[in-house]
Design brief:
- By secondary structure, this protein is of the alpha+beta class.
- The chain has one domain: Nuclear Transport Factor 2, Chain: A (Roll).
- Strands 1, 2, 3, 4, 5 and 6 form a six-stranded antiparallel sheet that branches.
- A hairpin with a 6-residue loop joins strand 5 and strand 6.
- The chain is flat.
- The model has no long low-confidence stretch (mean pLDDT 88).
Length: 138
């Protein structure tokens, strides 16, 4: 049987040191950005509000976890700032996306938009208009 003119199991291509350094730099940069999103007060408040919502818990299940990657913008300058975040979340029964738009004045975050869109469901769950359940007489 004749031998093929090429190896059957070629050696993997080695990346140059520049490609390796760029890969390390991008990884470190993404880690720093993602960590800053996850440690921000506005992110924590959005996640807490979403995970406490009964509709979201029923639709995607518990426990609710956020994805590693959060996209958007976050600007903080002392006691003021603004944020526009998209936070992917998931549970045992599905996935959803939190959209959080907020501004910070006097050290307090105020949401102008806090909605959750559940994958496969029409419409959004508006977390700013959610009313507590009515009290019952027993």
């Amino acid at each position: 049987m004749p031998r093929p003119p090429y190896p059957l199991h070629p050696e993997p291509m080695q990346k140059s040191w520049l490609e390796q350094m760029i890969g390390v730099f991008v990884t470190v940069l993404l880690t720093i950005i993602t960590t800053s999103f996850h440690s921000s007060d506005v992110y924590k408040q959005a996640m807490a509000t979403a995970t406490q919502n009964i509709q979201i818990r029923e639709q995607i299940g518990e426990p609710i976890q956020s994805a590693w990657i959060v996209s958007g913008q976050l600007h903080v300058n002392g006691s003021s700032g603004d944020a526009n975040l998209s936070i992917p979340i998931s549970g045992p029964r599905g996935k959803a996306l939190i959209r959080a738009v907020a501004y910070k004045t006097g050290g307090v975050w105020r949401f102008t938009c806090l909605q959750v869109s559940v994958e496969g469901q029409s419409g959004n769950i508006d977390l700013l208009s959610v009313q507590p359940p009515a009290e019952r007489d027993f």
